[in-house]
Design a protein that fits this description.
By secondary structure, this protein is α/β, with parallel strands linked by helices. It is 44% helix and 16% strand. The longest helix is centred in the middle third of the chain and has 20 residues, at 135-154.
């Protein structure tokens, strides 16, 4: 297949691109997504079978302070690509990287915050009402709604993936897992982190890439406007997650919590399952949190 890919230099894109190139013709979009005419010309000239849209600013924390930039890049840029895609003849699918952050505030969030004890076995799925509560999440949810409009009105086939917190990075320690690991490796006495109380679930990069390739290479199974949560259902409190990593590194220093700026409306509970995606495609995650952390720790120990 001919696959047009945006965001090839990002966390997912840099791993996904070489996998797809083994069996498909992969073209990396060159123009700035905010330049509609140039993007449209480039897309129509390549005439892809599949468009995989990964390009976005993804640092949720920064979106609270750079709201306009996140809205322009993540929403307006996506709208431009969707409009260009709608003019491609015989397009088989438009695959969009959304986020579990679109769920935002839920009743469970207040329960976790107030009691510290979440209801067991609650995992958001495709039927959970989104309430995005960060500029990043608002823009991503707006993209989903634009895709639904384009599917209904323009006949655009699409699949959106509401991704979980991914980990296993080899070259970026901004995100939570890698940040914890690298701080502990570099600083035996103390580290500085943000909130201790939120619950999150995590997916290892290998499982995430398998999900993406499964969706991309099986368009007829998923291209009828599906929006998938991706799981896995493995929620853990950040404080406990840090302890788990510390035990693996045999790190016994001091943790300074709440050292980052307060995020307006912090979300204390985000967790999802993968039942619908598994039902549609047979995909399911295989790497446990324990194994994935061991592999990520080894990556950064070797690097540092």
């Amino acid at each position: 297949m001919k696959i047009l890919l945006t965001g090839a230099s990002g966390f997912i894109g840099q791993h996904l691109s070489p996998i797809l190139e083994n069996d498909h013709i992969v073209y990396h979009l060159k123009n700035d997504l905010l330049r509609f005419d140039a993007v449209e010309e480039e897309v129509l000239e390549f005439s892809p079978d599949i468009i995989v849209h990964l390009a976005a600013r993804t640092e949720v924390e920064n979106s609270f302070y750079e709201q306009t930039s996140f809205s322009e890049i993540n929403y307006v840029g996506t709208v431009n690509l969707i409009e260009a895609a709608s003019k491609v003849r015989n397009l088989k699918n438009f695959v969009f990287a959304s986020t579990m952050e679109v769920y935002g505030w839920q009743p469970i969030s207040d329960e976790v915050r107030d009691s510290g004890i979440p209801k067991k076995f609650i995992a958001f799925d495709e039927n959970t009402t989104p309430n995005p509560n960060a500029p990043y999440a608002v823009a991503k949810y707006a993209c989903e709604k634009y895709l639904e409009y384009a599917h209904r009105s323009l006949g655009l086939p699409f699949t959106a993936i509401r991704q979980t917190n991914a980990y296993g990075r080899t070259d970026n320690d901004f995100f939570v897992t890698e940040q914890i690991i690298t701080q502990m490796i570099k600083n035996p006495e103390k580290i500085c982190l943000g909130y201790a109380e939120p619950y999150r679930n995590f997916i290892f990069i290998e499982d995430l890439l398998n999900a993406w390739t499964t969706i991309i290479t099986n368009p007829t199974l998923v291209n009828n406007g599906y929006i998938f949560t991706i799981g896995p259902d493995n929620p853990i409190k950040i404080k406990d997650y840090v302890s788990m990593i510390a035990d693996k590194l045999k790190w016994s220093g001091k943790i300074n919590w709440d050292t980052k700026p307060i995020r307006p409306g912090e979300i204390y509970w985000l967790n999802s399952n993968h039942r619908l995606l598994t039902s549609a495609t047979g995909w399911e995650p295989n790497v446990s949190l324990d194994e994935g952390l061991d592999r990520t720790i080894k990556i950064w120990q070797n690097k540092l």
